[in-house]
Amino acid sequence: MLSLCPDWCWQYCDEQDRLLLQLSNSHHIQTAFSAKELLSKPEQQSLCMEQAQLLMDFAEALEGLLPDSELLTVAARAVAALNFVKAPVQKSHLFNFSSIECSSHLMSIAKLEGLSRAKVLLVAKADPMVDCLLLEPMELLNGKQLSAGQLVRVQQNRLMPLQFAPLYALTA
Asked: In what order do the strands lie in the sheet with 109-113?
């Protein structure tokens, strides 16, 4: 199980132009969020209790769905998205419509489809919109590439289930 350390802190790195969760002097988790996407640039901002609980909740919700080696990284990026990143612009038109209804529970994994498909983690919801953290790189319908770790806002009708339920044909 994941154990948190009271020394963990959020740090904006000018050199890399990225938000980091500093775990120790030599270890950190780098997010995909640059200065232009951030509400503020944290300087040695301690991980507060609410963020620590959210980190644990995301890690617990993803346990068994992602390899253990990725749990902390993905959970930290989701917490960063919720606490430091400006609300993304809605980009539903860059993703295919899904005719299959998908559950849109927070902290669950779904898929988005552009010219390629990618797994996403649902981090925030305001009907009918949902904010998703890309777990894989993907190509949008306009040909633009998005990297893993980026935050996108889409309408819920763009989400596809991670696993498709078997479809049964009726016979006469």
From this structure: 151-155, 129-134, 117-126, 109-113, 160-161
